[in-house]
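It would be a great kindness if you could assist me with a short task in structural biology. The matter concerns a single protein, recorded as an amino acid sequence and a row of backbone structure tokens. The record follows directly beneath this note:
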Amino acid sequence: MTRAEVAEEIHRIIQSAVNRGGGNWHQGFRFQVEQIFTVMGKLSPERDGNIRKEVPNYNKHLVRKVRKPGQPKVKFTPEQRNNARALLRKMGMI
């Protein structure tokens, strides 16, 4: 059954129970509840128009590399590093 058919059947069951009860809330509706669950069990899965697309293949060239917190932003050459150390020693910082 489709969703609309199930909803219509459940509405019919509830409407007949309300009419039969006449506002008497002491009356038991166990049979109607069982009918509703039986109808809900007949609900077939619906195919919606939104079919999921497949994930495209991973393209390394389109993905930007993210710098990790421990990695330096710039890689210095050993000569640049030695010059920076010498400058810091002259200033008395190391």
In short: The CA atoms of residues 55 and 62 lie 15 Å apart.
